[in-house]
Input
Amino acid sequence: MMIAESMAVLVLWPLVAACLLFLLPGRWGWLAVLAGLLPLPVVLWPLTVGVLEHGMLRMVIADFQTPLGIAWQVDGLALVLLWLNVLVILLVGAYAAGSYRASEPVGR
Output
């Protein structure tokens, strides 16, 4: 996977998984949780390799430069924060998938 695609998938994949979680019935919700959580470390790995090789990665979206457009920049600190974010997401997602049952009533 290329670095630009991994940056885009890292942002868009949790949104796709949330839509799957909304569309799937209660017993199949764990499948959407797994589909949303497990690819995140795989997608983050090319960014890690790219930062280790080049020091900093920069991607300009839609070919507009920074005063008018959006530019994503990943350096070492941003990479550490992304890995920490993925770790927290995996832990919270595993806890939520194991503790919530669709057959239980919500509220009192």
Notes: Strands lie at 57-60, 71-74. The chain has four helices and two strands.
